[in-house]
Amino acid sequence: LHQVPLFKHLSDDQLTRLSEICSRKGFKAGTVLFREKEPGDVFYIIVSGSVKVFTSNSGGEEKILSVFQAGDNFGELSLIDGKPRSASAQVLEDSMFLTLRGSDFIQLLRALPDMSLTIMQELCRRIRETNDHVYDLTFVDARTRVLKNLIIFANRNGIRSGNTIQIRIALNYDELARMAGVTKSVLMEVVRDLERIHILNATPQGFSLDLSKLRSGGA
Ligand code: CMP
Fold first, then answer.
1. Cα dihedral 205/211/212/215 (nearest 10)
2. Is the pLDDT of residue 30 over 90?
3. How far apart are CA 11 and CA 132, in angstroms?
4. How remote is the CA of residue 141 from the centroid of ligand 1, in Å?
5. Is ipTM strictly over 0.85?
6. pLDDT tens, 174-204?
7. Where, if anywhere, are coiled coils annotated (predicted)?
8. How many CA atoms lie within 13 A of 163 on its CB side?
9. Does residue 75 line the site of ligand 1, with CB under 6 A?
10. CA 86–ligand 1 middle distance (angstroms)
11. Which of 11, 37, 147, 183 sits at a 20 to 30 Å CA gap from 133?
12. Substitution candidate for ligand 1 out of 41, 46, 74 with most atoms within 8 A of CB
């Protein structure tokens, strides 16, 4: 538990008490943890793996709001404001979670100001990220949006060697397009275009990005 960023301020005593109310659960890739508009009663912390949070229209088309990975938490909104789930959550790869019952989560927020502050800071980060995304969708062209999304993944979990960054992405092309707010055909077009000028190279795990080409203004 002491490795979970949300609990970094807790004493050994508090961590021991926390371990009594946390459950450890594993879910297979593809499992839907909850759907938008359902009542919320569980808070999730990812120990390993990743999850996509998305909203969808009546035709089943998805817009991915965020991808969470190890150390991240989600499911707090409906527990805090008592309203239904604001989005759906689906496991992208076999993943392990710590879960807390809603009532226990609220009790912790009341008892632990440092933990409440960490949750508030995370909410601030998400509003800023959402504002950036609204800006991009309004003012930025599709090609730049795709590149910006790849750079976000590169910053979060890219492995750098020299001028190249290997980006591991648990999303398929459909999902990546939905995250960048472009159609799959636009995404494929942008990827092919960037491959042609050797900025990007699609790999089985994701992409590799050549920083020297990016800096020289090739994109
Ligand atoms: P909740 O509404 O309980 O269930 C869906 C969860 O997805 C929500 O809590 C947040 O944890 C998360 N979520 C919803 N919207 C966003 C967003 N725009 N950015 C990041 N996470 C979100």
1. 150
2. yes
3. 36
4. 26
5. yes
6. 999 999 999 999 999 999 999 999 989 988 8
7. none
8. 10
9. yes
10. 6
11. 37
12. 74
